[in-house]
What does this fold into?
Amino acid sequence: MWTQLFSIILVVFLGWLIYRTIKHNPASFSKENLGKSFYTLGLLALALIAFVFLLVMLLRG
It folds into this structure.
């Protein structure tokens, strides 16, 4: 019961926070900014995959 209530309150709060962010800064969700963000996140994901691969290879040897 308490976890459901807390979850509902958390979802409402996060929704309000996202709405406020979009309302005050709509340029942050432009096509150019999203493209830059996805490029950066893609590079970080590839670096993380390479790091995990390196750790697995070190553990095997």
Observations:
- The radius of gyration is 19 Å.
- DSSP finds two helices and no strands in the chain.
- The chain has a mean pLDDT of 93.
